[in-house]
Amino acid sequence: MADNRKNPESQFSAQLDGQLSEAESAALDALLESDPQARAKVEALRQANEIGRQQFDALLKEPVSLDLVRSIKTASEPRRAVQFPEAPRRKVRLKPTLVTVVASSLLMFGLGAGAGYMFGARPSMMTYADIAGDPSKAWLDDVTSHYRLFSRQSRHLVELPANESAHIVEWLMATTGVSFRIPDLTEDGLEFIGARLYSAGGRPVGQLVYRNRDSEVIAISFAKSLAPTDTEMREVIRDDIGLVTWQGLQASYVLTGPSSDAFLDTLAAKVARII
Amino acid sequence: MEPAPARPDIRRDLVAILPRLRRFALALCRDESRVDTLVTRACEDAVLKSSAWRGDVPLEVRLFTGLRLLARKDAQKRKAGEQGTRARPNVTHNRPTSRLIIDTLPNDSAAVFLLCAVEGLGYRDAAAIMGTTEDTIAKSMFTARRALSALATNTKERRA
Description:
The structure holds 2 protein chains of 2 kinds.
Chain A: H1 8-16, H2 22-34, H3 36-59, H4 66-73, H5 98-121, H6 128-132, H7 135-150, E1 160-161, H8 165-176, E2 191-200, E3 203-211, E4 217-224, E5 234-238, E6 241-247, E7 251-258, H9 264-274
Antiparallel strand pairs in A: 1-2, 2-3, 3-4, 4-7, 5-6, 6-7
Chain B: H1 10-16, H2 18-29, H3 32-48, H4 59-82, H5 97-104, H6 109-118, H7 123-130, H8 134-159
């Protein structure tokens, strides 16, 4: 890069980026001390550098479109090909005898006739389960619509404020049948606002409400488990709302927040340990 | 067989650096309407290839390189499509001050200035991202600072 550093200005530009050796830096400083004209030019460059940084920093404040966030959060991950070590297979040559063929044909006929009888005899009746649909989907639908409605409230966000924590725990435990603690999430920039009670999927649901530094609402909802099946944490996006669901020993939990929040799953993992 | 170690979800990290990716894409293509398309394609590409990523290169460096390649391809395609049609309109009027810097800095110097002076990368990393030499990066940095200095002087004179 030596040929770029003919004049003090270009040398100073490289010095600003920490690209000069100690000897080169010392020589440049000595030159600038003795040449006021060069010093003025260099000072102008320093100011220009600061202006540039400020203007680029201002670009960071521009809002990121929700569609962009959603398209990245829902981008499909590559499928991982896992190859398990295979034991060498023994080749079995199939040579059916007449008795085997007749016996298997009779067996298949019997199975087919049995299945046909069972399906034919069954009346075409719609069960309650058919009408009700997937209970876990219904519960998530209700949690989402509740969040959409209440997260826009300012004065009526909660039923009981944060300063009544003891009463919140007593009230929600008695109503939902779920024992819990109110997680302290101040380290994550979340302020506990209070709690409310609502109904989702036909069950009473307790909700702990927090606000982050951007005044967005983050809510933890919990209800007594219906059928504990999937214990894995799952993230779902419904329009502009992100939901992280998981299953505890006695309850189902959902952490709800804006889908643009990249750390909802980390927060949910922390809440799952504390609550 | 031992299970593979759990890999953090790259998509979450990508969302966290989205504003920086958009800013770099804007410095490269200078066209706001192209920014989100470029960023989406670069991120989708990174997610698809995430299983091959060993973490030896920082995520943003990897994405900046991908964005530069995509922006170059995109510019070539658009140039080929625009040949023989009308010239691009001058878009420097009525721009917000923060956007002025993108229009002021010539060629790739906006992107280079962003990488070195704002993102804090060294000339070597910036050269790898921009697909050029360290010498060219040094020249671009000097060009950018001189252009910014001239812009500041003009603004002062106009105010006076």
